[in-house]
């Protein structure tokens, strides 16, 4: 007789490993941003080239997130997760051997293939391992590794290591941890029970068109594009904004930029965790509104590192919290049965292609044609659009839906007969 007890031990081991893995995705992806001032000098790049290097990874990430999400629903999580983490770790190291713009673009595009494959599959694996009442928190916790490693620690690691080695060796050094985590995943991560056990009756699996029939999926796609525009424009262009416009030195720039990661780290489990209680829709609206206010304040702050850090921390809490909320619990709860990874892949893919791919390239154009000081307007307008889009979300948080369903019954019981 099979036990119905939840395997909490596996839940926490899996979520921890997947959070570390996604943290390394963030580290390998964003390590290049604070290194760009040095890379630009060696490879003779422009601000437009910087935006293109960030954008091409986002484009390939988006395409393969949508593609591999559906494939992992069919062939299993492990067959995608483990090759993907090994692949992007090795490719990150290869970034250090780029001899010019073309080779750097090629390596970053291939990194997007591996990281895009890892992303929705890892989210689905976290959802598989999580108890429903902890789903929002766990998905946010797993995604918070991206902000902590990629946007908080990467600027500090990169700028400090530049003092003792070249940017090429920095890439080689940080590729090692991913190989270790990939080996640990091989021994720990399981396939979901629905894949490892034959069903009593065959379940007919739908296709991506069925996913798009769920109202929250297209809404989440547009909303995530708005949120990712905020994240990726800041991540790509802020180092240049701080050094070229506000004239901060490299070390102080690294500390200020790390606020994106520290604020995002708290926000990526804080906002989805809060949404478990107040609802996905309210949390999304509040997140976009909070981001807009903080970014507007940020553009008025001068060369004051402490104040810049504080305001950027708050902005990142909201905007990266939104990324975790929309690509995690919102996409998961809107997915048809057996198509969680497909739904996440479609949502993340759309957000990445437009917010992570096109927006940084557009920001590079704005910086080149109108000045680096004007890049803040692009994310501000994007998150204001996100406020309106969030109003279209249907509420799916289990606790909120349950309370809403119970309300008529309680009201009916309270009426005199």
UniProtKB/TrEMBL annotation:
Where is it chiefly localized?
membrane
Where, per UniProt, does this protein localize?
A: Membrane
A GO molecular-function descriptor: carboxylic acid transmembrane transporter activity
Gene Ontology annotations for the cellular component aspect, listed alphabetically: plasma membrane
Transport recorded as keyword: no
Transmembrane feature ranges: 12-33, 45-68, 80-99, 146-163, 169-189, 219-241, 253-271, 283-301, 307-326, 338-363, 375-393
Q: Organism classification, top ranks?
A: Bacteria, Pseudomonadati, Pseudomonadota, Betaproteobacteria, Burkholderiales
The protein's UniProt keywords, in alphabetical order, are: Membrane, Transmembrane, Transmembrane helix
Identify its membrane topology class: Multi-pass membrane protein
Q: Which InterPro entries match?
A: MFS, MFS_dom, MFS_trans_sf, Sugar_transporter_CS
Matches recorded under PROSITE patterns: MFS, SUGAR_TRANSPORT_1
The protein's name is Major facilitator transporter
Q: Which residues form the Major facilitator superfamily (MFS) profile domain?
A: 14-397
């Amino acid at each position: 007789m099979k036990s119905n007890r939840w395997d909490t031990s596996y839940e926490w081991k899996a979520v921890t490993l997947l959070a570390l893995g996604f943290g390394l995705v963030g580290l390998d992806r964003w390590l290049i941003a604070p290194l760009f001032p040095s890379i630009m000098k060696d490879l003779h790049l422009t601000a437009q080239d910087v935006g293109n290097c960030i954008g091409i990874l986002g484009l390939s990430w988006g395409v393969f997130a949508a593609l591999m999400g559906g494939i992992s629903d069919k062939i299993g999580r492990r067959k995608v997760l483990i090759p993907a983490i090994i692949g992007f770790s090795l490719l990150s190291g290869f970034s250090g051997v780029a001899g010019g713009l073309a080779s750097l673009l090629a390596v970053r595009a291939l990194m997007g293939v591996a990281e895009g494959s890892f992303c929705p599959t890892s989210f689905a694996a976290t959802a598989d391992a999580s108890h429903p009442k902890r789903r929002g928190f766990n998905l946010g916790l797993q995604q918070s590794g991206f902000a902590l490693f990629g946007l908080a620690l990467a600027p500090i690691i990169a700028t400090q290591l530049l003092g003792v080695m070249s940017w090429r060796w920095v890439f080689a050094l940080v590729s090692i941890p991913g190989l270790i985590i990939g080996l640990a995943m091989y021994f720990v991560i399981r396939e979901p029970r629905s894949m490892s056990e034959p069903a009593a009756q065959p379940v007919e699996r739908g296709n991506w068109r069925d996913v798009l029939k769920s109202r929250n999926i297209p809404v989440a796609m547009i909303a995530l594009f708005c949120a990712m525009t905020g994240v990726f424009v800041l991540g790509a262009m802020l180092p240049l904004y701080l050094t070229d416009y506000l004239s901060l030195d490299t070390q102080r720039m690294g500390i200020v930029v790390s606020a994106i990661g520290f604020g995002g780290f708290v926000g990526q489990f804080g906002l989805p965790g809060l949404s478990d209680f107040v609802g996905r829709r309210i949390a999304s609206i509040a997140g976009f509104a909070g981001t807009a206010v903080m970014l507007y304040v940020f553009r008025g702050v001068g060369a004051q590192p402490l104040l810049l850090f504080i305001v950027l921390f708050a902005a990142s809490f909201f905007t990266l919290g939104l990324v975790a909320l929309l690509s995690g619990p919102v996409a998961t709860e809107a997915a048809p049965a057996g198509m969680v990874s497909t739904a996440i892949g479609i949502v993340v893919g759309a957000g990445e292609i437009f917010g992570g791919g096109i927006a940084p390239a557009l920001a590079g154009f704005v910086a080149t044609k109108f000045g680096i000081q004007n890049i803040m307007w692009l994310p501000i307008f994007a998150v204001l659009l996100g406020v309106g889009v969030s109003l279209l979300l249907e509420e799916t948080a289990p606790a909120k839906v349950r309370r809403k369903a119970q309300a008529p019954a309680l009201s009916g019981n309270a009426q005199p007969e």
